[in-house]
């Protein structure tokens, strides 16, 4: 019998493209304090971190109280946009849903999420896309230190009982890859996300979802 394996996915920039609403909500947060909005590339470079870490990077010169108000304004704006746009607030990248469905249909493969989103945000995204029951473990920034701390991956391993050698983290940022390395699991970087794939230093890089299955098989020593 094949031992179970665990595939842990980042969300924003990996499974779904939420940059439109992230950028709009960030603009609202800075505007609420009368501050200039950072450039698009700088905002997207921090996607995946927890919101306190994100605003520390983007507005570290502001006081803690100001950053707390900005976080609240960001969350309110993002929630409004999600309610307005529904599932289109964070559309799947082409092929992402199909890849999840294929993996979920394998009896030896378990799926998990490790995201900088809040639990509320992740739950609403899962509901909007009809992914209930897809993931055996759902780890969010509400319950753990920010990436690249390995706590989310450790929790996913504990939830599923899968050995580290049979687990792979799939993400689009160096925070995902550094988190995987810190947790002692393999990593796959995707070439369509918010940070350049060439700088990820992942164990494998894929540029489309077709490449996911063979990369997973190779990293978990599974025969297709």
Biggest pleated sheet: 6 strands, parallel
Put simply, the count of helices is: 9
Percent helix: 40-55%
Total number of strands = 6
* Strand arrangement, major sheet: 3-2-1-4-5-6
Order of helices and strands: EHHHHHEHEHEHEEH
Q: Strands, helices and their partners?
A:
Elements: E1 5-9, H1 19-32, H2 40-45, H3 51-59, H4 64-85, H5 96-104, E2 109-114, H6 119-128, E3 137-139, H7 151-160, E4 167-171, H8 174-183, E5 186-190, E6 204-206, H9 212-219
Parallel strand pairs: 1-2, 1-4, 2-3, 4-5, 5-6
Give an account of the 3D structure.
The chain has a six-stranded parallel sheet with strand order 3-2-1-4-5-6, with helices on both faces. The protein has 224 residues and is an alpha/beta fold. It is 44% helix and 12% strand. It is globular and about 55 Å long.
Describe the structure in brief.
Helix content is 44%, strand content 12%. The chain has helices at 19-32, 40-45, 51-59, 64-85, 96-104, 119-128, 151-160, 174-183, 212-219, and strands spanning 5-9, 109-114, 137-139, 167-171, 186-190, 204-206. The two termini are 14 Å apart.
């Amino acid at each position: 019998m094949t031992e179970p394996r665990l595939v842990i996915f980042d969300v924003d920039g990996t499974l779904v493209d939420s940059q439109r609403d992230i950028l709009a909500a960030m603009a609202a947060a800075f505007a609420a304090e009368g501050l200039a909005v950072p450039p698009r590339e700088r905002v997207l470079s921090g996607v995946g971190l927890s919101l306190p870490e994100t605003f520390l990077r983007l507005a570290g010169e502001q006081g803690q109280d100001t950053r707390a108000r900005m976080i609240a304004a960001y969350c309110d704006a993002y929630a409004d946009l999600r309610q307005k746009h529904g599932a289109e607030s964070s559309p799947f990248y082409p092929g992402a849903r199909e890849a999840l469905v294929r993996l979920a249909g394998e009896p030896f493969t378990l799926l998990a999420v490790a995201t900088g989103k809040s639990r509320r945000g992740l739950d609403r995204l899962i509901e909007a896309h009809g992914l209930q029951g897809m993931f055996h473990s759902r780890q969010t920034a509400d319950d753990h230190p920010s990436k690249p701390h390995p706590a989310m991956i450790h929790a996913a391993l504990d939830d599923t009982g899968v050995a580290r050698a049979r687990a792979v983290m799939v993400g689009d940022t160096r925070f995902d890859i550094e988190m995987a390395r810190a947790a002692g699991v393999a990593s796959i970087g995707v070439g369509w996300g918010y940070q350049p794939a060439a700088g990820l230093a992942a164990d494998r890089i894929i540029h489309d979802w077709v490449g996911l299955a063979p990369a997973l098989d190779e990293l978990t020593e599974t025969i297709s």
